[in-house]
Amino acid sequence: MKTRLILSTALVSGLAPAAFAQELTILSDSSPDTVATFEALTAAYTAQNPDVSFSIETRPGGSEGDNLVKTRLATGEMADLFIYNSGSLLQALRPDRTLLPIDDIENYGQINEAYLSTVQGADGATYGVPLETAQGGGIYYHKPSYEELGLEIPMTWDQFMANNAAISDQTDKAPIAQSYRDTWTSQLFVLADFYNVLQAVPDFPEKFTANEAKFANTPAAAKGFERLQEAFEAGYFNADFGAATYDDGLRMVATGEAVHYPMLTFAVGAFQQNHPDLMEDVGFFAQPGDDLEANGLTVWMPASLYSPRDTEHPEIVRDFMNFVASPAGCDAITEAIGVTGPYLIEGCELPAEVPGMVADMMPYFDEEGRTAPALEFLSPVKGPSLEQITVEVGSGIRDAASAAALYDQDVEKLARQLGLPGW
Amino acid sequence: MNLPTGRQAGSAPSHGRGSTAATQAPAKRRGSPYPYWFVLPAGAIFGIFFLAPTLASFYFALTAWDLFSIRFIGFDNFVQFFREPFLMQGLVNTLLFASITSAAKTVLGLLIAVLLTSGIFAQGLLRSIVFFPVLVSTIGIGLMFAELMHPTEGAINLALAAIGIDGPGWLTNPSLALFSVAMVDIWRGVGLATLIYIAGLSTIAQDYYEAARIDGATRWQQFWRVTVPLVRPATTTVVILSLIGGLRLFDLIWAMTRGGPGFSSDVLASVIYKQYQAGFYGLSTAGNVILFLLIGLIILPLAWWFNRKEVEQ
After folding, report:
1. Interface test with A, best of B65, B68, B283 (most A CBs within 10 A)
2. How many helices (H) and strands (E) does chain A have?
3. Are A74 and B67 in contact (CB under 8 A)?
4. Which residues of A touch B261 (CB under 8 A)?
5. Less Cβ crowding at N or C end of chain B, within 10 Å?
């Protein structure tokens, strides 16, 4: 449709079509993987649509990037396309006022339904398409150490702690790597426990959003904090856990200085970049709960591609998003950064050869009922101070019960700012 | 205090010049030779970029603001800000940090300044070395010391280990983190205090020391009875500047601990920044208004007290 529009305009005005070449702007985050993804997608799209070109600019990640996105959206300075989180963080952008709805793109029906609910506004319209694969939150482990000690993949938390005890008794390796210099990495034991929470209390997200359930008074939800406290008190962390960084954590589990590292599976890209030779030494399993029968993976929805409502090129933007949500788009991404997990677009195929740590997470997706979204994709309520609170629990400054209560207090502000009923 | 300055500045004061100055002074007060519109360019910049935003912040502090919509909510933000679990600790930390660093910079600054004006060997070089940290970017200093203070691989603990001492987790021990940052802030800021003191010391006429020596004063008495009282204007400047700097310090804390571990080294400015990061723009503006008032409440009486003492002298 776009091409037709350009051609007809060209005919009417009698100018060379080249004069109508359109340039779209993209705001990417600064991670090399995201930039490579955008470069591959735009190159593939331009190959099909020679009259459309793109310029990519980058922004910092983390909350600094959040503020940049919000400011540019609020002042009408946003690029034509940008990457941002799905789920609770998206709601803070007020998508129903600021973003371009894309429900009418051709491939809409091919997008995973559970994903779609995380990129919809309060009005029910859809605003984004997945720019990455689904990710899991769980525990990376050092395979050679497991083989050496004859350990099995733990299916319950007790087995996991028994493995840690064995590592601690028989080696001088740290059973668990923690890296609190990058505070966000401290949240994993709590966030990745959510599959287990949902098994015990299936309606926790709705009740949590409605201010009827709390972490402190829901034993299953408070468990995540307790597990972190238990691991700290057992002395299973690396000696420099308070000063180590995310990169240190990856190095420790890749080289076997530490045997476990709880992390999101987006780390595949960083492993590939930092430790390409040790890729196959690292495996992955879901954070186990108390129930042997209910073992599954907490899933993170990928960051998505959005466009501001006031873009000057809504038709090209929709067409580009449609391309991203197609098998050709997935292939471009795979080619650029490799496979990090399962795609959320129907018809997207994974190559036969994937890294072991990615293969380890596939069974969870293949079997019915062995995955569940993380809380932030089921409820808009997410407290900003969780990472400080988990650092406190993981450093022995605060106990689990008071941490859960403090987190309940932390989310109140956000719920009120969002104007949710019941707060 | 005015006397030595006068003596230094007006070499060979003559009665004639003194009296013309006296007769000119009231004339100046009646009408400046410069027209008022000279102030316009600076005034406009000050008004647009400083005054207007400051006044606007008093309004935004009373709203729930997410950049996309704004809702007037009265004093709720202030109520919420004081309910922040770590605000009280942040407030105590702020006051503690400001007083420790301000006191240390004042005392050390004066002592180093005295040393560096005493005609010591390589005085110029030493002055440059003391002043050097002031020129380095604070973030750079913060990152560098965060590495030096690493609990297992940092140079400080490795050096301590070499002499058999098991060094603490400077930045990871919750009861130590704030003081570690304070030490770095003193290291960074003492150069400026020294510079101000050197300027202050150079205005003290040698006559006083001569007179004191003739009266048989020891070095200690000279320092305590002559130097300290006469260098008072410099002390005022150093105390006030370093206190304001300590109260609103943010960059060093953020580069070294981000207020952590947990919340243990949070100060007002880092609590405010975290609210801003989380998208609570109204709330963080309210925090800034509180910080503004707090600094005003501490500094204004202090400045008044210092100035009164000066006049009394």
Report:
1. B68
2. 19, 11
3. yes
4. 180, 242, 391-392, 395, 397
5. C
User: Is the ipTM here above 0.85?
Assistant: no
**Domains, chain A, ranges and CATH?**
2-127+303-343 (3.40.190.10), 135-300+360-418 (3.40.190.10)
Q: At B71, which helix (H) or strand (E)? A: strand B70-72
Contact B280, A410 (CB under 8 A): no
With contact defined as beta carbons under 8 Å apart, do A377 and A185 qualify? no
pLDDT in tens, A139-196: 999 999 999 999 999 999 999 999 999 999 999 999 999 999 999 999 999 999 999 9
Do strands A22-29 and A81-84 pair parallel, antiparallel, or not at all (unpaired)? parallel
**Vertex B2: Cα angle to B99 and B304 (nearest 5):** 35
> Out of B69, B263, B279, whose CB is closest to A388?
B263
User: CA A116 to CA B29: how far, in whole Å?
Assistant: 73
Structure tokens at B66: 């997410």
pLDDT tens track for A256-288 = 999 999 999 989 888 988 999 999 999 999 999
The DSSP element (H or E) to which A141 belongs, if any, is strand A135-142
In this prediction, the residues of chain A whose per-residue pLDDT falls under 70 are 1-20
Whole-angstrom distance, CA of residue A75 vs CA of residue A2: 28
Nearest to A275 by CA among A253, A243, A244: A253
**CA-wise closest residue to B94 among B282, B301, B297, B310:** B297
Taking contacts as CB-CB distances below 8 angstroms, the residues of chain B near A409 are 85
d(CA B123, CA B130): 11
Residues B176 and B260: their CA atoms lie apart, in Å, by 11
Q: Which residues contact B281 (CB under 8 A, 6 or more apart)?
A: B60, B65, B66, B67
Residues from chain B that touch A389, judged by Cβ atoms under 8 A, are 262
Burial readout A142-181 (b: 16 or more C-beta within 10 A, e: otherwise): bbebbeeeebebbbbbeebbebbeebbeeeebbbbbbbbb
Spatial CB neighbours of B112, under 8 Å, sequence gap ≥ 6: B130, B190, B194, B197
Q: Residue B199, Cα to own-chain centre: how many angstroms?
A: 17
Set out the domains of chain B in order of their start, with CATH numbers.
Answer: 84-312 (1.10.3720.10)
CB contact under 8 A, A97 and B174: no
CB crowding B243-279: b at 16 or more within 10 Å, else e = bebbbbbeebbbbbbbbbbbbbbbbbbbbbbbbbebb
Residue A319 to residue B27: CA distance in whole angstroms? 77
Question: Token match 């990871």: residue?
Answer: B172
Answer yes or no: are the C-beta atoms of A201 and A213 closer than 8 Å.
yes
Closest CA to A204 of A376, A371, A364: A376
Distance CA B77, CA B106 (A): 37
The residues of chain B scoring below 70 in pLDDT are: 1-31, 310-313
